[in-house]
Amino acid sequence: MTPTNKPAIDPNGIVTRPLPPDQISPKAVVLRLLQIKNVFRRNWKLLVILVAIGALIGYIYDLMHKSRITYTGSIMFNLGGGSSSGGFGELGQLAGAFGLSSGAPDANIFVGDNFLIYAQSRPVVEKTLMQHDTINNKDTLLVNYYIRHSGIRDKEWEENDSLRAFYFKRAKKPEEYTKMEQLAMADIYTRIKGEIAIKQPERKSSFMELSCFMEDELLTATFLSRHLKTIEEDYQRKQTKKTREMYDLLNERSDSLARILSGTENQLAQFMDQNQQVVVAQARIKENKLTRNSTFLTTLYYQALQQADNMRLSLIRETPLFTIIEPVSLPLFREVLNTKGLQIGTALSFILAIIVIFIRETYRSIMKEE
Fold this sequence. Notes:
Elements: E1 8-9, E2 15-16, H1 26-64, E3 68-80, H2 84-94, H3 114-119, H4 122-129, E4 132-135, E5 138-141, H5 142-149, H6 161-164, H7 179-193, E6 196-199, E7 207-214, H8 217-239, H9 241-274, H10 281-318, E8 321-326, E9 333-337, H11 341-369
Antiparallel strand pairs: 1-2, 3-7, 3-8, 3-9, 4-5, 6-7
C-alpha cells in the first residue's frame, strides 16, 4: 500500500495538509520567479555580450550582402477555342480511305493540373530561352540576356570563372548542347523554376495567370511574353498532332495521285497523236483503257484534294486559342528584398545565451551540493 499524505502540524499548532504532487502552490511559483531573477542578475552581462556578438555578426552579414531588387509581372490569359470532337468526327469519315478504324483517340493530352506542370517544364522553358527577341532595339538571344541581367553570375556562378564568362553562341536544341552548355542550362532552369509560377486565379474561372519575378524589368516583361508565345505554339502543335499527321498524309496522297494522273494523261495524249487514223479494234481498246484510267485517277485526285481541304479546316477548328486577357505592362511592381542577418543573428545568439546560462547554473548547483 502506498503511504497517504498525512496532515502536518506546524509549531504554532496549525494543521497543514500537503498539496498533491500534480499541483503547485503560489508560494512555489514566487520562489521559482525569485530564483530566475537571481539567475538573471548573476548572468545578465553574459547574456548581453552573447546577444551583442550575434547582432554584430548579423549586421556585418547585411553589410556584405547587397539588397536584392526584383520586378514582378504577370499575364492573364484564357485557353479555349479548340474542338477535338468535330475534327475527329471528320477523321472517322476519312478513316475508311486508309484502312483505319472509325474510333480515333482523343488528341487532348492535357487535362486538369497537367497543363500547369507542362507550362513550367524544362523543355518548354528551354524553347523560350533559345529564341531571339528585340530588347533595347537590339536582336538578342534571350538566354544570353538572362545570363547577363538575372544575377546568376553574381550568385550561383560567383566562384566559377568559366561559367561567369560563358554565353551561348547561337540558339541550339538540347541534343546539340556541349557539356558546359548542359551545366549552364541546368543552373539557369533551376533558378527560373523558382522565379515563375502559373495558376488559376479563380477555381470557377477558365482564366490562367502566368507570373514571374526577376532582377531586371525588361527581362521579366520579355520572358513573360515570349514564354506565353512558346507555350501557345508548343501546346497547339501537340494538341493537333494527329490531325496534322492525317493532313500531311492526305497531301502526300494527292501529290502521288497528281504524278500518276499526269503520267497517264501524257501516255493517252501520245497514243492519240500516234494513232489518229488507226481504226484497229486493239488500238481502240488501249485508248479506251487509258481514257478510263485517266478519268478514274482524276476523280480520286479531286477527292483527295477535297479531303485535304476539309482536314485543313478541321485542323483550324481543333487549334486551341490563347486569348490574352491582361497583358504584361510596364512599369512592373518593384520590390526590395533586404537580408535579415541582424534579426536572425540576434535571435540565434539569444537562444545560445540561454543554453550557456542553463549549463552554467546547472554546473554551479552541482558544485554547491558537493
